[in-house]
Design a protein that fits this description.
The complex is a heterodimer of chains A (282) and B (48).
Chain A (H helix, E strand, L loop, with lengths): L32 H11 L7 H32 L13 H28 L2 H33 L7 H22 L3 H15 L2 H11 L19 H44 L1
Helix pairs in contact in A: 2-8, 3-4, 3-6, 3-8, 4-5, 4-8, 5-6, 5-7
Chain B lengths: L9 H33 L6
Classes of the chains: A mainly alpha (282), B mainly alpha (48).
Chain lengths: 282, 48
């Protein structure tokens, strides 16, 4: 069977590169091909094991997620702007409907980045590596939104644009992790080395997610504790809870749509590089 | 009833929503442009 069209056939050191459809043993890796393929099939979602299948899936899934995001956001914004003012926070409570979903999504994006990095690192799966690379800029954008909208909410409510408490600092660390991940990927010319180094960085950074989550319980903070997912049920009224949940789903769907689009772009980029190599040899 | 009057907090509320809209537009534009650019380059060139 021929190698995928976008898989470079041989590296400078004479070994075949790890890529989707190329058995790890053929790529010069220590695992036997059969064992690695069995592990791949067992642990990775089916559409992640075959780039052609992924491209066929994402072709309809990306616009579907996008339309879902638009519909959910429209409903969430309508409910958000028809909700009454909060008795303490007044109209600034409406910032919650974009701030909290951004904060949840930036953590979810990093979880996806970490998971894809693990798959890419362990199985040398090129599509998982492409997924990790594609998640980073989106995660950074959502983290920026969480920090910026939080600052715009904090100024009228706390009297400060920024405080160095555990929650804000750990989210800032998350933003820096995204930046460092992208910088590291871009700094190394050898894509295999860049993928491996950035995947290790991403996995190390996963430790920050529980720190963000529990920071408000471990340290003194101006942030309130968990008020949605907590024992005893949500601490807010349904007039605020529903728009918040709808917007959170909208952000998640938007991330899903944009992530799929960027992974498709990454697959095409690798195909273009492989094509250029073939044309250069011809 | 739709309440778009944020009163004295309007600068904070609308700046937050405006910034969010801007970042979303930027994410959508950059993602689509990135995919389109590499899709074009990944197409094999025909005989010249």
């Amino acid at each position: 069977m021929a190698a995928p069209a976008w898989a470079p056939t041989r590296r400078a050191d004479g070994r075949r590169p790890a890529a989707c459809g190329v058995p790890p043993q053929a790529a010069g890796l220590p695992l036997s091909a059969a064992k690695a393929n069995a592990l791949n099939m067992a642990l990775a979602p089916t559409f992640l094991t075959n780039p052609d299948r992924f491209m066929a899936f994402s072709r309809w899934a990306a616009p579907l997620f996008g339309m879902l995001a638009v519909g959910l956001a429209a409903a969430g914004l309508w409910l958000g702007f028809t909700a009454p003012e909060d008795y303490q926070q007044g109209d600034t409570v409406r910032i919650m409907f974009i701030h909290v979903p951004a904060a949840w999504t930036c953590m979810f994006a990093y979880f996806c980045l970490g998971g894809a990095s693990l798959l890419g690192l362990v199985f040398r799966h090129a599509l998982a590596d492409a997924a990790a690379a594609a998640a980073a800029p989106l995660g950074a954008a959502f983290t920026f939104l969480a920090l910026a909208t939080g600052s715009l909410w904090g100024r009228p409510m706390w009297g400060a644009w920024w405080v160095w408490d555990g929650r804000l600092t750990s989210v800032l660390v998350l933003f820096l992790l995204y930046i460092a991940y992208m910088a590291l990927r871009g700094a190394l010319d050898d894509e295999a080395k860049a993928a491996r180094a950035s995947a290790i960085l991403a996995l190390v950074g996963l430790v920050n997610l529980p720190i963000i989550h529990w920071s408000v319980e471990w340290w003194n903070s101006l942030h309130q504790g968990a008020s949605v997912f907590r024992a005893g049920g949500p601490a807010m009224g349904p007039e605020f809870l529903w728009p918040l949940l709808l917007m959170a789903l909208a952000y998640t769907a938007a991330f899903g749509a944009l992530w799929l689009v960027r992974i498709r772009g990454e697959v095409w980029r690798r195909r273009a590089v492989a094509l250029q190599l073939r044309e250069a040899r011809a | 009833m739709l309440d778009l009057d944020a009163g004295k907090y309007a600068p904070f509320v609308w700046l937050a929503y405006g910034l969010t809209a801007f970042v979303f537009i930027a994410m959508i534009w950059s993602s689509l442009a990135y995919a389109r650019r590499w899709k074009d380059k990944a197409q094999p060139k025909g005989p010249t």
